[in-house]
Amino acid sequence: MIIGERLKIVSNLQVMPDIYKIVLKARKFLPIKAGHFINISVNDPSKILKRPFCIYDYDKKTGLLTVCYQIKGKTSGTYNLSQQDGFLTSDFPLGNCFADFIGKHRNIALVGGGIGVFPLYLLKEEKDIDFSVFVGFKDKKTADALSADFKVFKKLSVITDEQGFVTDKFKADGKKFDAVFACGPKAMLKALKSLNLAIPVYASLEERMGCGIGGCITCVCNVGGKNLRVCKDGPIFNLAEVAFDE
């Protein structure tokens, strides 16, 4: 079920110089899960397409929906509260979600890097799952800012680039898991794939999207020998089937 709504902006807080956390008022008890994303349009007639962002958090009892985003250009930069009329037009929830792949897995590792940690956070709502979280960031300042919320997970390992790679931290843990859920830069996902784990690894791909609804084929990637659209067929795939461009 895709919902098209104008969502009221509750707050838009700056987490870091280029990263914001915007809270929107949606309806209560919507089928939103970790890994889903939302298409948001800005109040600017020159920008026709809505922009896709992952859903960071959703409180089904209050309807509060949180999106974390990084300003990296003119389009995402327009998501500043001062430039809005108090509402954002949106379509959600889009894509598949990590819950689709939980199945009988009860001991799952979460591996995230940089802003790729955002799609993993809402997994806190999945009950009766033993999550072990491994997140990596470029420096301590970024780690402190972006890993703070993840303390809700009982097993949390945080690493910075000067300490090593998050995939190495995960590998060194030595614990046996049923599955791995991951999201992060392509280099991190390649490193995770190269471990050739004997368990399934499901990754949310960070491909650049155009329309976010499968029409423009900007985000096509090779999965299992087929050209699939990250926005429509994903964004979460079995990492073993993803062929990364060299």
List keywords for this structure.
mainly beta, Rossmann fold, seven-stranded antiparallel β-sheet, six-stranded mixed β-sheet, about 15% helix
CATH C-level of the largest domain? Alpha Beta
Radius of gyration: 17 Å
User: Biggest sheet, open or closed, and with what strands and sense?
Assistant: 7 strands, antiparallel
- Kindly state the number of beta strands: 16
Q: Say which CATH homologous superfamily of the largest domain is assigned.
A: Nucleotide-binding domain of ferredoxin-NADP reductase (FNR) module
Task: Quickly count the domains.
Answer: 2
Task: Round the mean pLDDT to the nearest integer and report it.
Answer: 90
Spatial strand order of the main sheet: 4-3-7-1-2-6-5
The low-confidence runs, each spanning 5 or more residues with pLDDT under 50, are: none
Structural class: mainly beta
General shape: globular
Number of alpha- plus pi-helical segments = 5
Distance between the termini: 36 Å
The topology string of helices and strands comes to: EEEEEEHEEEHEHEHEEEHEE
Helicity level: 10-25%
Content of β-strand:
35-45%
From the 3D structure, determine the CATH topology of the largest domain.
Rossmann fold
Give the name of the CATH architecture of the largest domain.
3-Layer(aba) Sandwich
